[in-house]
Amino acid sequence: MKKHNFSAGPCILPDEVLKKASEAILNFNDDNLSLIEISHRSESFVNVIEKARSLALELLGLENKGYKALFLQGGASLEFLMVAYNLLNKKAAYLNTGTWSNKAITEAKAFGELIEVGSSKDKGFSYIPKEYNIPEDVDYFHCTSNNTVAGTQMKTFPETNVPLVCDMSSDIFSRQLDFEKFDLIYAGAQKNMGPAGATLVVIKEEILGKVERHIPSMLNYQVHIDKDSMFNTPSVFAVYVSMLTLQWLKDLGGIPFIEKVNAKKADLLYSEIDRNPFFEGIVAKEDRSIMNATFNITDDSLKEAFDKMWKEAGINGLNGHRSVGGYRASMYNALPLYSVQVLVDVMQEFERNQK
Ligand SMILES: *Cc1c(COP(=O)(O)O)cnc(C)c1O
């Protein structure tokens, strides 16, 4: 039986997506060729990437609103750099909510003045800063919607007149947001969409073309837009699997449907963390992530016993990020509610064993 996969990323994908993807490796579209041995300019593959791009916009409710969807390479980490390359003329504002924001800030610093408008570094990134001001004269504001490592999530986004740029790597397509508020959204595929190797970038085209520097072709969003996300060979397999996952999500009922399932999973687990005296949450309750629940065991001497139990129950990927320790249960879209129930049952059995 397949394990209950709480891995933070690369992460769980729907069974039916994995099945279709493995079939396509051997014989794609009944063409008697593999998906990964055909030209990316063949009609079969062009249809795939066009479908993936349109599904992404459709699920976010951004069709015909001046947005373009691209599937690029280099991960979200390259977007840290590309965002600044393409948008930062003089100054940009960043919200620092943890590991990934920090990396985005480090990359962007090479391009201009960075204003860290807020930071939760003082308390180990265990909350989302709320009172901060975004200067009117910055080129854009950058934030991270979900902090995969710390387990916090922005529940609201600031009202601002400057372009809003967001790293949504670990919660894209998981909850309803007013996506039109955002001018650029990026996400590495491997958290909630597909295998590693593709990065989804959704851009409002009108924000481009405002920097004076020369931008190398591969790092230039406009070049990728003009070439319909086919400036060079895209990562065909990652794009195909992402397309299948987006189709899976659409068939289920899209973001409104999955949001309810995700809320149920998170409620189930956080209720147990709060109830069970052997466990405790790590971050501010109002900022808890629906995707990545971080928690500690209250008595470290019992860690080994607990680890043995969840592993025996067929659970995978529960260890916290190496920089934080403790536990982290990542409950991405494809994780069934049943898997969360299995984890909660293990936590309850663990409690009973201590009596
Ligand atoms: C995983 C992650 C990244 C890094 O993604 P790569 O694709 O490995 O570059 C960036 N931001 C967030 C929020 C992440 O969860």
What is the radius of gyration computed over CA atoms, rounded to a whole number of angstroms?
A: 21 Å
Give the strand content. 15-25%
- Based on secondary structure, the structural category is alpha/beta
What's the CATH C level of the largest domain? Alpha Beta
Give the integer mean of the pLDDT values: 97
C-alpha termini separation: 31 Å
Sheet of most strands: 7 strands, mixed
Task: Give the tally of β-strands.
Answer: 14
What is the ordering of alpha helices and beta strands? EHHEHEHEEEEEEEHHHEEHEEH
What's the name of the CATH homologous superfamily of the largest domain? Type I PLP-dependent aspartate aminotransferase-like (Major domain)
CATH architecture of the largest domain: 3-Layer(aba) Sandwich
Helix content: 25-40%
User: What's the number of structural domains?
Assistant: 2
CATH topology-level fold name of the largest domain = Aspartate Aminotransferase, domain 2
Please report the number of helical segments.
9
Low-confidence stretches: none
Enumerate the distinct ligands. Answer: pyridoxal-5'-phosphate
Spatial order of strands in the largest sheet = 2-10-9-8-5-3-4
Taken from the alpha-carbon principal axes, the silhouette is globular
